[in-house]
């Protein structure tokens, strides 16, 4: 009717279109109805699973409480400390290992209950009522009984352990204190009888005196323990302790040893003080020698290190600073020689005293290891290093003068070439976005620029030669310019790339204009619109800039999902490589081409009616055809038979099932 007629009848067209609409609309309704039923059934299945989980968890927890309370209420005492401690350890295992998981189960039970009630309320279902004796309150009451039994059991265990400890505490206390004291006194008598001070130096004598004073303090501190041992032994005698003879013998031995330690301590102090006075005179001289020799030796070592240090300088100012510091150092050498002679004089005085009084000296100077021979050797080495340093500084000064000349030569050229490159870049940018004259005029202008740029290359090559000399001289900075050779190279490469790319863009614009018949006025309009939204003058439009441009041109691109999808489609056209920018050429090509729903019982019944083909009942085959297998079987198992006059064998009542889902009848 349509193809074979030059002008089809309007009513016939409307009839055909209406038929297509009703056909597809009916299929959509069936799919929507099936989805709604799936959603409602999924909620009901989830709620039933939560109910079963609650019942099982509550039963297990109550059974564990019933078995645990009799164990905690058992108060049968034990006869030994070991047995009572085992009971205490069992109780601690219960507190650490067995109870914490049950505490977690109790908490999870309450969370599941509250979550289930909330889900039932939000899905218009009736509240969940647990089985008899399994309410949250019942579980809390049983838990309170468990904690009460647990508290009484712990108190009973601790009281029993205290009772058993009290029986043998006193005897164990004596043995412990006596063992500690005997361990402390072991070897003390032999230590007090040593003659180590006879060959010691003064510093060693002073150290021995300090050590002896510390021992005397330690001895006085142990006086209290000896008195406690004697008091405990006396108390054990008064209580007729069965092993009193051994206790008394051990106590008497401790007291006799204590008296002997006191006498030996006094005797050793007197010997140490006599030896100390004998060595003080020599020690004072040793100390003075060490105090003056150490800093002088450090000065010489520092001088040798500085004189041999390999310096690295990069400017004339740095080498001049090193030369000034070296002259200042040479001015200090006469005073240093006087100090050296004074130090050697102290050592000679010590030698005279030792020979005169025949003092038994053990070793050399205890305050320093620096000998007169070492001082003389280092002093001679310093004197030899001074002229070598003079020569090295003179050679470095000449080298830095040559480096400074290279810096100035490079800086003078770089300070001209760098701004020239920047200026050319800016001029090319202005030419590429200006709208004066035709595209051919812009192309000719750009080619003249390209020729002038290529003619500038010899100056770049000359600068490269100067840079090579700077690198060979190991010059790393140049205060005469902010430009480096790398900056110049990058700028030169960008300049060549920019002029070539800009010429290519204008040539492409000419090809586009000629191929699509775009007038010069239209090209100017496109360029004006493009430049207006090119806020950063980069020559390209970013996504947001391009979007604003499209909106200004009348495109309906909102901030909703539909608008974002439309914008993404357009971006895929103008930016197929996904670079995130829109060039002017792509812009010209483009310009030339061109909710929430809620469920109720009535809605579920209406959905079932659509699946049933407007019948008041639904069959098993229809459910299995329209719904997923698990949810179809769920409905079949719970729907009551339909008993209406129009019923057929196997008909199911979806109306009562729908009301039961929302608690309006029994499921």
Explain this structure to me?
- By secondary structure, the chain is mostly helical.
- The chain has four domains: 54-166, Methane Monooxygenase Hydroxylase, Chain G, domain 1 (Up-down Bundle); 196-370, Up-down Bundle (Methane Monooxygenase Hydroxylase, Chain G, domain 1); 407-580, Methane Monooxygenase Hydroxylase, Chain G, domain 1, CATH 1.20.58; 601-662, Orthogonal Bundle (Recoverin, domain 1), CATH 1.10.238.
- The protein is 77% helix and 1% strand.
- The protein has helices at 10-72, 81-122, 136-185, 188-192, 202-221, 223-238, 244-308, 316-331, 333-357, 372-433, 439-455, 457-472, 485-516, 520-533, 543-552, 561-574, 584-592, 601-611, 620-626, 629-638, 654-661; strands at 540-541, 582-583, 640-641, 652-653.
- A two-stranded antiparallel sheet has the order 1-2.
- Helix 1 (10-72) crosses helix 18, helix 10 packs antiparallel against helix 11 (439-455) and helix 11 packs antiparallel against helix 13 (485-516).
- The radius of gyration is 53 Å and the shape is flat.
């Amino acid at each position: 009717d349509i193809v074979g007629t030059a002008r089809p009848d309007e009513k016939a067209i409307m009839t055909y279109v209406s038929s297509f609409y009703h056909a597809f609309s009916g299929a959509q309704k069936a799919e929507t109805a099936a989805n709604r039923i799936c959603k409602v059934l999924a909620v009901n299945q989830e709620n039933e699973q939560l109910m079963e989980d609650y019942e099982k968890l509550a039963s297990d927890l109550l059974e564990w409480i019933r078995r645990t309370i009799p164990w905690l209420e058992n108060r049968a005492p034990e006869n030994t400390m070991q047995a009572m401690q085992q009971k205490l350890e069992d109780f601690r295992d219960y507190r650490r290992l067995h109870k914490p998981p049950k505490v977690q189960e109790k908490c999870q039970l309450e969370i599941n209950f509250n979550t289930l009630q909330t889900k039932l309320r939000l899905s218009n279902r009736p509240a969940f009522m647990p089985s008899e004796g399994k309410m949250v309150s019942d579980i809390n009451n049983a838990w309170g009984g468990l904690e009460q039994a647990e508290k009484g059991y712990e108190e009973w265990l601790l009281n029993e352990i205290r009772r058993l400890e009290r029986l043998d505490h006193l005897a164990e206390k004596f043995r412990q204190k006596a063992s500690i004291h005997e361990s402390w006194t072991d070897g003390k008598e032999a230590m007090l009888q040593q003659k180590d001070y006879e060959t010691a130096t003064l510093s060693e004598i002073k150290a021995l005196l300090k050590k002896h004073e510390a021992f005397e303090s330690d001895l006085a501190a142990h006086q209290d323990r000896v008195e406690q041992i004697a008091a405990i032994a006396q108390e054990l005698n008064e209580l007729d302790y069965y092993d009193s003879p051994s206790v008394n013998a051990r106590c008497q031995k401790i007291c006799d040893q204590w008296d002997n330690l006191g006498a030996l301590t006094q005797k050793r102090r007197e010997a140490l003080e006599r030896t100390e006075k004998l060595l003080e005179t020599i020690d004072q001289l040793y100390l003075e020698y060490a105090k003056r020799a150490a800093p002088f030796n450090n000065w010489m070592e520092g001088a040798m290190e500085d004189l041999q240090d390999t310096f690295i300088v990069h400017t004339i100012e740095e080498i001049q600073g090193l030369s000034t510091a070296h002259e200042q150092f040479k001015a200090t050498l006469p005073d240093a020689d006087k100090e050296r002679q004074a130090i050697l004089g102290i050592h000679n005085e010590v030698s005279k005293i030792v020979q005169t009084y025949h003092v038994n000296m053990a070793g050399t100077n205890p305050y320093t290891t620096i000998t007169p021979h070492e001082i003389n050797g280092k002093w001679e080495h310093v004197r030899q290093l001074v002229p070598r340093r003079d020569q090295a500084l003179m050679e470095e000064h000449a080298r830095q003068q040559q480096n400074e000349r290279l810096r100035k030569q490079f800086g003078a050229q770089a300070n001209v070439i760098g701004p020239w490159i920047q200026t050319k870049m800016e001029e090319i940018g202005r030419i590429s976005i200006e709208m004066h004259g035709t595209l051919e005029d812009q192309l000719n202008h750009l080619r003249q620029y390209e020729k002038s740029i290529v003619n500038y290359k010899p100056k770049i090559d000359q600068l490269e030669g100067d840079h090579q000399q700077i690198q060979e001289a190991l010059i790393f900075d140049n205060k005469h310019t902010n430009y480096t050779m790398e900056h110049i190279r990058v700028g030169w490469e960008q300049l060549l790339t920019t002029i070539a790319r800009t010429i290519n863009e204008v040539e492409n614009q000419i090809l586009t204009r000629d191929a699509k018949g775009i007038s010069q006025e239209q090209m100017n309009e496109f360029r004006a619109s493009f430049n207006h939204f090119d806020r950063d003058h980069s020559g390209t439009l970013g996504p947001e800039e391009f979007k604003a441009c499209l909106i200004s041109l009348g495109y309906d691109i909102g901030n909703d999902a539909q608008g974002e999808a439309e914008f993404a489609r357009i971006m895929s056209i103008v930016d197929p490589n996904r670079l995130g920018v829109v060039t002017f050429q792509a812009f010209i090509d483009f310009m030339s081409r061109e909710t929430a729903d809620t469920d109720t019982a009535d809605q579920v019944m209406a959905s079932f009616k659509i699946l049933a083909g407007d019948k008041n009942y639904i069959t098993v085959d229809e459910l299995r055809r329209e719904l997923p297998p698990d949810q179809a079987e769920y409905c079949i198992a719970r729907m009551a038979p339909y008993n209406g006059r129009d019923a057929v064998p196997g008909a199911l009542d979806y109306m009562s099932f729908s009301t039961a889902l929302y608690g309006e009848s029994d499921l």
